[in-house]
Amino acid sequence: MEDKVTPLPARQTAPPLPVEPIVSVPFEQTEQFQSVLSAAHEYLLNHVEDQRVDIDAWSPETTGKYVQSQTAAFVKEWKIPVNAQEMEAVSNALHKELTGFGPLDDLLHDPEIEDILINGYKDVHISSGGQLRRATQRFSDDRHLLRILRRIIAPLGRRLDDSNPMVDARLPNGGRLNAIISPLAVDGPMVSIRKFRKDPFTPDELLARGAFDKPMYALLHALVRGRCNVLISGGTSSGKTSLLNALATFVPHNERVITVEDTAELALNHPHVVRLESRLGGFDGAGAVSIRDLVRNSLRMRPDRIVVGEVRGAEVLEMLQAMNTGHDGSMATIHANSPRDCLYRLEMLAGFAGFNGSEESLRRQIASAINFIVQISRLGSGRRVITSITEITGVSDNIITSQELFKHEPWIDQDSRERDRWVGLGFHPHCYKLEPFRQELREANLGSLA
Question: Which part of the chain is the Bacterial type II secretion system protein E domain (predicted)?
Fold first, then answer.
């Protein structure tokens, strides 16, 4: 009888482990690039000094060729292990270091970028289309970042050092820079740069972008042409300044407009604009000129309309006084999350400014000064839309009364895309200033609003 041999089980092979793809990091984003750039920059500056080269007198083309030749000489002399493409990247960066603003140069010239936020030398973020994302640019170290910052603010007459660790300045292109450094900033220099379009949005462009619909466009046009006093309310980066710039295009060209701002940001598309900007004081506070001082002075400059870039302090009393004493059609922006919050904030600011009257008299002044509040918001998708237009109707039982004329109601379509819808709530505006525009509002299909 033969013995039965049990066959060995087939050898089991383990499934192959997944191979993660190797992600190639661009040379410009490596530590090696930063080290080479830092050494090459010092080499270049030494040669500029030794050769007594006047870079400022050269054309950009001549400067570019000089930087290329010096970069090649540096790579050869120091035997830097880089190829031709990497050497070109170092040369381009050096050119921006020498004639521009280093890593910020491309960001500052990109028209699509709205904000540049720097949280230390390695961490740079940008905002575009209302969405925040990390940028690929970075600095070599804190000294590199401080060198670029000081180059930006030097022509503005501002300082950034241990004795002046904070600076807020208007850039020549109309943007705004805020920087704070050690010891106030714990993790290195913190910089916020707000950029503004060279050509501000027009009402037609905002309509095309979906900031509001046609009936609201007609109402906004009537508010400005009818010389209603309008307050634009919204949160940070919600589009208040852009909307104010757009509404100013409705102002008749034969009127004189005076703008008052802490940092000049408005660029009104109007032929007769007087722009005023506040001034910080010296070390002892001497020489300071506040927005309140400027608003008070603007009343003596024969304004038809006064536009306050942002109401956030004692200037609220002068603004309310101007709106109540014949300067109809004035406009301003304010930080608030809703029209009701906007009214509360006005009361709070007036209290901080030392208003001595009763609560009822203050509310009556606010109700008689402000005709409409336009609320604008930035949605989760980054889009800016007007979420409410509210009319201030008076005071009842010591409460400022209002009625909402339009309300934004987002909805999701069948393709799971967010859509906008503005609902007219059917109330009739009480403001007598709109009487000449009733027919225009009817033709815009405002329904019972007209």
Answer: 99-377
- The sign of the dihedral angle between the CA atoms of 428, 446, 364, 328 is negative
Q: Is 11 helix (H, G, I), strand (E, B) or coil?
A: coil
164-177 tens-digit pLDDT: 899 988 887 778 89
**Residue 183: cis peptide before it, omega within 30 degrees of 0:** yes
Helix or strand holding residue 294 (H, E): helix 291-298
Cβ contact 247:225 at 8 Å: no
DSSP string, 41-91: HHHHHHHHHHTT--GGGS-HHHHHHHHHHHHHHHHHHHT----HHHHHHHH
In angstroms, what CA-CA distances link 307 with 126, 170, 203, 216, 450?
29, 18, 18, 21, 27
Q: Residue 160's closest CA among 151, 187, 401, 217?
A: 151
Burial group, residue 274, by CB count within 10 angstroms (0-12, 13-18, 19+): middle
* Residue 319: count of CB within 10 angstroms of its CB: 26
Can you give the pTM of this predicted structure?
0.83
As a whole number of angstroms, the distance between CA 119 and CA 191 comes to 7
What does CATH list as the number for 103-197?
3.30.450.370
Q: pLDDT tens digit string along 369-401?
A: 999 999 999 998 888 999 999 999 999 999 999
Q: CA 33, 38, 42: angle at the middle one, nearest 5? A: 145
Structure token digits, residue 157? 């007459």
Beta-bridged to residue 169, according to DSSP, are 177
Q: Which of 91, 95, 64 is nearest to 80 (CA)?
A: 91
Is the distance from CB of 148 to CB of 103 less than 8 angstroms?
Answer: yes
pLDDT tier at 449 (50, 70, 90 boundaries)?
low
Return d(Cα 176, Cα 170) in angstroms, integer.
Answer: 5
How do strand 124-128 and strand 131-134 relate by DSSP bridges? Answer: antiparallel
Q: Is the pLDDT assigned to residue 326 strictly greater than 90? A: no
Q: Is the dihedral of CA 354, 360, 363, 364 positive or negative?
A: negative
Q: Give the C-alpha separation, 131 to 153, whole Å.
A: 27
* Alpha-carbon span 435 to 450, nearest angstrom: 9
Give the residue extent of every domain in the chain: 26-99, 103-197, 203-447
Residue that wins the pLDDT comparison between 314 and 15:
314
* Per-residue confidence (pLDDT) for residue 445, from 0 to 100: 65
Domain 203-447, classified CATH 3.40.50.300, yes or no = yes
Residue type, 286: A
Across residues 405-426, what is the average pLDDT?
A: 85
393 touches 403 (CB < 8 A):
yes
